[in-house]
Amino acid sequence: MRFKSILFKLLNSILSRLSNLPDNIRYLKFCHSESNYFILPGLTFFNGKETYLYGKGSLHIGQNTYCGSRCGIYVAQGYTCRIGSNTAISHNVRIYTSNRNPNDIINSQPFTSEIFGDVVIGDNCWIGANVFISQGIEIGDNVVIGANSVVSKSIASYSIAVGAPIKVIKKGMLHK
Question: I want to staple 55 with a disulfide (CB 3.0 to 4.6 A). Which of 35, 75, 91, 132 is the partner?
Answer without folding.
Answer: 75
